[in-house]
Amino acid sequence: MTAEDPIVTVRALNHWFGSGDARKQALENITLQLPRGSFTVLMGPSGSGKTTLLTLIGCLRSVQDGSVRLLGHELNGADDHALTRLRQRLGFIFQAHNLHESLTALQNVMMGVQVRPGVSDALASQAAARALGLVGLSDRMDYLPANLSGGQKQRVAVARALAGNPALVLADEPTAALDKDSAADVVDLLKRLGTERGTTTLLVTHDTRILDRADRILTLEDGRIVSVAGTG
């Protein structure tokens, strides 16, 4: 793929859960692109399909119908090995920080790099330290999660997602448990990385406090994109 190609292109994507009489369509005819370096917010009521779309783009579910091209690779029909290799090139941030309580902040972030093949402990440590610096936690690298505030824990989770310098960050409600200032810090960092590194972000949220920072806002209802605001 070239520098001008979208990081993600979705065309006529459909997805179902269940079978027989219980089969329910979760996504219907989804078409979208995520340009390199863009910051896109995905909104909608609970059950509208936001997380389902995020997990399909993130290679956490198999594409059933339609096309999802990620980093130049078609996901529909891709085998488990191909999906795993692509997933290793992404960064994931969730509402729950999911830190290992027995590991320091540095060790937790190192895990985000060590999933990639051929990365030594020394390189992982250097990348983790840089990422913790990006989120303002250079002085907390040796702290266990129990000794960090809620906002600091989430920033460690953000650092873990960013440590491998991913082309795409997929974030599911990453600011829901944060105060206004901490939420703004997380979003501003992701925006800055879009400008400085070309990192693309797709963020699922109900948090209206951060909408003014988005390049584009997509709204889902009943599995369909019903509105697009912005030009990113």
How many distinct domains?
2
The CATH architecture of the largest domain comes to 3-Layer(aba) Sandwich
So how many helices?
Answer: 6
CATH superfamily of the largest domain: P-loop containing nucleotide triphosphate hydrolases
* Low confidence ranges: none
C-alpha Rg (nearest Å): 18 Å
Helix content: 25-40%
Biggest sheet, spatial arrangement of strands: 6-7-8-3-9-10
Output the CATH topology of the largest domain.
Rossmann fold
Biggest beta sheet attributes: 6 strands, mixed
Structural class: alpha/beta
What is the overall silhouette?
A: globular
Strand content: 25-35%
Descriptive report:
- The mean pLDDT is 91.
- The longest helix is centred in the last third of the chain and has 17 residues.
- The chain folds into 2 domains: 155 residues, P-loop containing nucleotide triphosphate hydrolases (Rossmann fold, 3-Layer(aba) Sandwich), CATH 3.40.50; 68 residues, no CATH class.
- With 232 residues, it is α/β, with parallel strands linked by helices.
- Strands 6-7-8-3-9-10 form a 6-stranded mixed beta sheet, sandwiched between helices. Strands 2-1-4-5 form a 4-stranded antiparallel beta sheet, covered by helices on one side.
